[in-house]
Amino acid sequence: MDDTLAPAAPLAPSAPGSLSDRRAIRELPDELISQIAAGEVVERPSSVVRELVDNALDAGGTQIQLKLIAGGIRSLIVEDDGHGIPDGELPLAIKRHATSKIGSLDDLEAVATMGFRGEALAAVSSVAELAIVSRHTGASHAWRLDARSGELSPAARARGTSVEVRELFFNTPARRKFLKSEGTELAHCLEALRRHALARPDVGFAVWHEGKLVDQWRAAPLPQRISEVLNEDFIAQSREVFHEVGPLRVHGRVGLPEAARSRADMQYVYVNGRYVRDKLIAHAIRSAFDDVLHGHRQPTYVLFIDVQPELVDVNVHPTKIEVRFRDGREIHQQVRRAVVAALALSRSDESPQAAAPDAPTAAPTGNGRERWTGTPAWERPMAVAGEPAAPYQPPAPYDAPSARFAGPEGWRAPIPTRAQTALALEQAEALYASASQGGLPTATGAGSGLDAGARSAYGPGTASPSALAAFGTAPAGPLPASQAGEWPLGRAIAQIQGVYVLAENAQGLVIVDMHAAHERVVYERLKTALGETRIESQPLLIPVTFAATPAEIATAEAQAETLQRLGLDIAPLSAKVLAVRERPALLAGGDVVDLARGVLAELAQFDASHAIERAQHEILATMACHGAVRANRQLTLDEMNALLRDMERTERADQCNHGRPTWRQLTLRDLDALFLRGR
Questions:
Q1: In whole angstroms, what is the distance from residue 233 CA to residue 254 CA?
Q2: Alpha carbons 238 and 252: distance in angstroms, whole number
Q3: What whole-number distance in Å separates Cα of residue 565 and Cα of residue 612?
Q4: In 289-441, which residue ranges form alpha helices assigned H by DSSP?
Q5: From CA 670, how far away is CA 679, in angstroms rounded?
Q6: How far apart are alpha carbons 190 and 214 in whole angstroms?
Q7: Which residues contact 577 (CB under 8 A, 6 or more apart)?
Q8: In the prediction, which pLDDT does 399 show?
């Protein structure tokens, strides 16, 4: 067939973006704009709960009720007893960007309310049927506004506001298909209300589903509210956190390492009363658990960070779940210090007989700290005008390898002295001394620096002199039974299979894993000695170069001074290459490039880095593990009692370096239950 007579091939469709497909720029209709905005704010019923409860709290509500049908998909009502909305302002309330909470740029830069954009009600009304019933303070009756028709009519209710949302996503079927089951959506709504309940213990909350009361929390002190919202076990297995410096206050509770969970489902952080998920704060808290958490377990905590509103930007995320701090490095450092200080205390310090005979008297709170009695964040979110702020004292350099984390004024985490840290092992001293030749400080405070009197008090034990030095400060001979109750961990009474030490205290029986406990004691001693010196750097004969990203090069240039304090000298060699000229002497055997990349990544993301500290501590942990007393080593009673005393004086003595528990308490009630006594 002649090609000239063949039918013409159909024209290929024009490629996207070609001139024939180009659309003119035009303004979008208001309805489409509202639905796009709703897509950013309203994801599911719990998003509506969050926005409406924010408004209820801003209105001064003291009792808030949430009523749900079908998990909030068919119906969702939020009622409060706040000051209400005047009838003349009700039509404005559902307009986009209409709000009473801010009126100028200065207000936006110092937001002191939960909401501020004025778009929540407008967004919800564009994807659901919405009605508002409100009675303003002093009004003779309430008014009801139907958002779809705009009709305003008289209604009956007490002072306050009710917002009713029906048939969520009724006009966007595609989005409604993405909703989960009613039970799943109900669980998300409950979680949203829990977050508000934890932040505002002064407000009562109740949630109803299908006409049945699901949960209720009456106004109560914060510890009681935490216990009710989470569970009583969290209070029992957590420790109070309090740290205040300048305009920043960190308080709340942090779970003990043994209470860690497999999922990060019990982690609550609030900034000025607002629940947030912030990577910087999460990293600071996680780094505080570095050497006390086992495996990949997740810590539990409820932390409140109060800071002047001008120092934090809450207008960085559509759902206001993220914030940006003006000085992220400072926030990171102080949050980490607060958590480390709380974890430094041992559970034995909190027992009824926690104070040893020669220990200082405990503060009234029982944990050595003064209890803060100031104004909560929800009552005083910003500094009072004309009232001078407390003088701000800059903290120690955030990158110090083992700074002693100070708490509030008059309190400091207990630091074991050289005379108190009696369990010095010759093997650990030898390892420490050999490592110091590569840049680690000399063994002052690690054993060789002990004075002659202290060494004579720690005379040799029964083990091989090459493996063990003496156990320390216990009196000669067994402790009297009458004195056992005066020590938190009691007096040693026996050893089982050369592995566990049994002790008797006022509560009952204490079981100690002697290797894990001794490992922590030695490890903390080495950390203390290391923290008393600056990081020594070692120049490289031939600089190590590596290909770097633009972000890494920018970080190396901007953080040059910080890198020098960390013992690193990293400088650009070209537009795409970085050169490492110096590295920490203690880490001479590691991979320089991996270390440099890790430090630069942390500095870029969090404006702070603990990579050097972690690497140093890993070396010290290995030394402590090899230097600690081994299983099947028979100890004398003096050595067992010395181990117990040193555990009482050592920070984080409840866990070994790998996060395993070092001791357990069996009370008399536990023992009675084992033998069915009293039944």
A1: 12
A2: 10
A3: 10
A4: 328-344, 426-436
A5: 13
A6: 9
A7: 545, 546, 547, 548
A8: 36
Burial class (CB in 10 A: 0-12, 13-18, 19+), 202: middle
Average pLDDT on 599-606 reads 82
Integer Cα distance of 451 and 461 in angstroms: 18
Lowest-confidence range among 214-223, 426-435, 610-619? 426-435
What SS3 state is found at 77? strand
CA 45 – CA 29 distance, rounded (Å): 25
d(Cα 506, Cα 255) in Å, to the nearest integer? Answer: 25
The pLDDT of residue 39 is 64
- Asked whether the predicted pLDDT for residue 215 surpasses 80, the reply is yes
- Model confidence pLDDT, tens digit, residues 545-600: 999 999 999 999 988 888 887 788 999 999 899 999 998 877 776 788 988 898 89
Q: In whole angstroms, how far apart are CA 240 and each of 344, 345, 373?
A: 12, 11, 14
Other Cβ atoms within 10 Å of 11 Cβ, number? 6
pLDDT class of 391 with cuts at 50, 70, 90: very low
Element (H, E) at 582: strand 577-584
Distance from the Cα of residue 564 to its chain's centroid:
29
96: how many CB neighbours lie within 10 A of its CB?
16
> pLDDT band at residue 15, thresholds of 50, 70 and 90?
low
Contact (CB, 8 A) for 487 and 353: yes
Within 13 Å of residue 525, how many CA atoms lie on the same side as its CB? 34
Rounded-to-integer distance, Cα 53 and Cα 91, Å: 20
CA–CA separation, 115 vs 60, rounded Å?
13
Number of neighbouring beta carbons within 10 Å of residue 265 = 9
CA-CA distance, 273 to 323, in Å (whole number)?
12
Is the separation of the CB atoms in 271 and 323 below 8 Å?
yes
CB neighbours of residue 43 within 10 Å: 17
- The torsion angles phi and psi of 354, rounded to 5 degrees, stand at -75, -25
Rounded distance between C-alpha atoms, residue 217 and residue 197, angstroms = 8
- One-letter amino acid at 70 equals A
Question: What letters, b where the CB count within 10 A reaches 16 and e where it falls short, cover 148-175?
Answer: eeeeeeebebebbbbbbbeebbeebeeb
Q: Is pLDDT larger for residue 438 or for residue 81?
A: 81
Per the CB < 8 A criterion, the answer to whether 314 and 325 are in contact is: no
Question: For the ranges 117-126, 198-207, 345-354, 608-617, which has the lowest average pLDDT?
Answer: 345-354
**Which secondary-structure segment (H or E) carries 656?**
none
Spatial neighbors of 100 by CB under 8 A, at least 6 apart, are 89
Q: What is the pLDDT of residues 276-314, one digit of tens each?
A: 998 899 999 998 998 888 778 899 999 999 999 999 988
Q: Which residues contact 658 (CB under 8 A, 6 or more apart)?
A: 294, 621
Give 101's Cβ-side CA count (13 Å radius): 24
Angle 637-649/514-531 helices, nearest 10 degrees? 50
List, as one string, the DSSP characters of 97-121: T--SS--SHHHHTT--SS--SS-HH
Q: What pLDDT is attached to residue 151? A: 92
- Please report, for residues 362, 476, 507, 649, the alpha-carbon distance to residue 358 in angstroms, rounded to integers and kept in the order given: 12, 17, 21, 12
Using pLDDT thresholds of 50, 70 and 90, give the confidence band for residue 315.
confident
End-to-end CA, the chain: 105
